[in-house]
Design goal:
The protein is of the alpha+beta class. It contains 2 helices and 10 strands. The protein has a 6-stranded antiparallel beta barrel with strand order 1-2-6-10-8-7.
Length: about 180
């Protein structure tokens, strides 16, 4: 199907649609500002790349526009990230951040308009792999600390045993010495 003038081809999870030739998306950094009482300057912390939102205004048209809407709605309802192919942004792995909005009108025959908001979704396995790596480091440090603590307790127990043996021997020697004198 040939696109109408001013519309460009796009798709989400393999379901084709058209978008107008405008694009709205965010880019930048995630900044957290902390304000302290009695101190004039604020503290800004950079939390990394902003996972900006991508707003799509799309169109489905043709004699099967209702079937196209059902397929796209099912694609929106699937959990997890999906592939968005956009004429300006290219191929991206995204996740739908809020439900898509579909609109039908009697004045626009064989047309369904929709709006959807996505954000980039990074490799979850890589993220979790990094998280698991952090847990592995934590577990290793915890194991070393536990071993050090056990060694310390063993040393202290041996020291206390030696001290107790020495005290018992001293007490026996004192008792023996007192019985002789």
């Amino acid at each position: 199907m040939r696109p109408l003038p001013g519309l460009l081809k796009a798709s989400f999870r393999g379901i084709p649609f058209f978008v107008d030739d405008r694009l709205t998306h965010e880019a930048g950094r995630r900044i957290s500002t902390t304000i302290f009482p009695g101190i004039d300057p604020d503290a800004d912390d950079d939390f990394g790349l902003h996972n900006g939102q991508i707003e799509i205004r799309g169109f489905l048209y043709g004699s099967d526009y209702k079937e196209q809407e059902k397929r796209l709605r099912r694609a929106f309802e699937k959990p997890g990230p999906g592939t968005l192919v956009h004429p300006w942004l290219g191929e991206l792995t995204v996740i739908l951040t809020e439900p898509g909005h579909f609109t039908f009108s009697e004045r626009e025959l064989r047309v369904c308009r929709f709006e959807a908001t996505f954000k980039k979704s990074y490799d979850q396995a890589g993220l979790l792999g990094g998280l698991f790596s952090a847990f592995a480091v934590f577990a290793a440090v915890s194991a070393v600390l536990s071993a050090a603590q056990n060694l310390f307790h063993t040393f202290m127990s041996a020291r206390n045993l030696a001290a107790a043996s020495f005290a018992a021997g001293r007490d026996r020697a004192d008792a023996t010495a007192q019985s002789l004198f």
